[in-house]
């Protein structure tokens, strides 16, 4: 065996290879990660309200709730940026900090990119709503963007559980 004294634990803060410096500590899931989880769950609710309003022909209501959803997406991205700064500056979590650091940044980073894409898509839908591009019964582009956003939200709940809680 390469490392006979190695004990497999997660998160792996002390890599068996002494040339790799592990993270000093991990995030408490009940601070920024929980805030971001609540933001994304709330954004799914606001998006659903916007979608239902569009289906009922309440364009102004749809516009307002969709604007709130876009704002929540931006808040998530900003808080994720704060979390990345905290991870690097205070917790020693970097891409070079062993498997935990690499896993943390890969998983949350890919998700963050998808949130950015989703926020841009929803912002585009907001502009289209303002311009009157969708009808009550004909709004597939809007509906597809809702599917995307809800999928991104569900993925985050899984990440929250497996990256932060467990």
TrEMBL record:
Cellular compartment(s): Cell membrane; Membrane
Which PROSITE patterns did the record assign?
Answer: COX3
Q: Which Pfam families match?
A: COX3
Provide this UniProt record's keywords sorted from A to Z.
Answer: Membrane, Translocase, Transmembrane, Transmembrane helix
Presence of the UniProt keyword Membrane in the record: yes
Q: Where are the transmembrane segments?
A: 30-50, 62-82, 115-135, 147-165
Q: Which residues form the Heme-copper oxidase subunit III family profile domain?
A: 1-166
Q: What is this protein called?
A: cytochrome-c oxidase
Q: What is its EC number?
A: 7.1.1.9
UniProt keyword Transmembrane helix, yes or no: yes
Question: Which of the seven top EC classes does this enzyme belong to?
Answer: translocase
**The organism of origin for this protein:** Vreelandella olivaria
Family annotation (PANTHER family): CYTOCHROME C OXIDASE SUBUNIT 3, CYTOCHROME C OXIDASE SUBUNIT III
The record's comment on protein family reads: Belongs to the cytochrome c oxidase subunit 3 family.
**Membrane topology, record value:** Multi-pass membrane protein
Database matches in InterPro entries: Cyt_c/ubiquinol_Oxase_su3, Cyt_c_oxase_su3_dom, Cyt_c_oxidase-like_su3, Cyt_c_oxidase_su3-like_sf, Cyt_c_oxidase_su3_a-hlx
SUPFAM superfamilies given in the database record: Cytochrome c oxidase subunit III-like
